[in-house]
Prior knowledge:
Layout: E1 4-5, E2 16-22, E3 31-32, E4 35-42, E5 46-50, E6 53-56, E7 60-65, E8 71-75, E9 85-92, H1 93-102, H2 108-115, E10 120-121, H3 124-134, H4 143-158, E11 164-165, H5 174-195, H6 202-208, H7 213-223, H8 228-246, H9 251-257, H10 263-274, H11 278-286
Parallel strand pairs: 1-3
Antiparallel strand pairs: 2-9, 4-7, 4-9, 5-6, 5-8, 7-10, 10-11
Helix pairs in contact: 3-4, 6-7
Amino acid sequence: MKYKLEKVPQRPGMSWRHQIQTALTTNSETHYHHEFELNLQVASKGQIRLGQFQGELNEYHLVLIPPHMPHAIELKTKNREEKTESHSVWFKKEWIANMIFSCLELRKMETLLKRSDKGILFSEQTAKSVHSLLKHIDYSSTTIHQLAILIEIIAILCQDKDAVTLVPISTQTDESKEDENKDKIEKLSAYINQNYAVNITLCQLAKHLYMSESSIHRLFQRHFGESFSQHLKKIRLSHAARLLETTTLSVGYIADAVGYRNQANFNRKFKSYKHLTPREYRNKYRQ
């Protein structure tokens, strides 16, 4: 079955997003997104569907939905005067993974995120504690202060011993996997094409995309069939070949323009790639 991909708008200067809706009276279409979603329903009447799970909403209903899991909320509340609240907090998997990797204090979150592959329902006490924090977020405060509130929420989630998983098996559509990989590959390619002339590293690429270095490495191997360094070398040398074909720029200038500061090194790599030296390649093209 085909589900709608919902793209979460990014707040400028922020790595996560919080949205609140009151007196919600419409049902959400079954959808998925690339981010984790922490969804809190307060005083809403109806049902929630997560993958293969379907259940009634509690008075305080807090669930953690993993990336790519189809989900929807079907409301019975139709009276706009009824005081209901719907909170959604979204954050990217790569961003939180990097936070966990870099910050020992967040390592407990790793266990929670692994469990969330099946969706997690938290206790009413936890839901009330999270609600108290969310409804008092001051968006006129600094971004660091707002992030601190999210960290506090994460700490509360990790301490909930009564949290339960909802879906018997992890649910992820083939279509959503394809969309996710396509989006990542497009971002990878755009970053490399814009920065191949400078000394970019796998670490810099991982930070730019909020992914771990190991995840970037696997993505290159799976999609391109080669490592990051091999792919970067091909990009640089392909640009160099085009400049040799279409300009009269010196070999030394071209080497520097595509990211090689040592011309001898550039000559060796170019010959290994094209089986001709740069000058031989230029002469052959002009013939």
